[in-house]
Specification:
mainly alpha; 56% helix; 3-stranded antiparallel β-sheet; 145 residues
Amino acid sequence: MHIPFLDKWRERQSGQGRSAAAVFEDHPEAAAELFAECELLRSHAHMAGLELDDTPASLAALDQLLPRWRDDPEVLPWLGNDAGLYLGTVVVRTVPGARWHVWPGGRVVVRLPSGRELHVVEAGIEWAVHGAPELSQMYAEISEG
């Protein structure tokens, strides 16, 4: 995958350029592509026979998976991170005006047209650890208003 802003970001890590957050803001499509990868989550879903297609229906299907990842404390936070990024991906792709925002320091949120910010990674980690709130439920609340 070619993500043009990464080269610029790496060049600027020497302290002479803008923050990574600013580079992400300049290239929202590339950032969305990067956040949508969710490789660990997609792999776990695939092993369970589920193909993630970046739709709200796939969030409901994820909610139905047996949470075998909870048996592996090393995988749990990474899978939760991916679940949050996947939730954000579905929101950004299906809720008009929603977009990714990266705060200085690296915190990733989804910003809705209303200005409300969704801490999707934190929500994904809660889902992975506890199973609640469900991803589909979070999406329904977000998309309603």
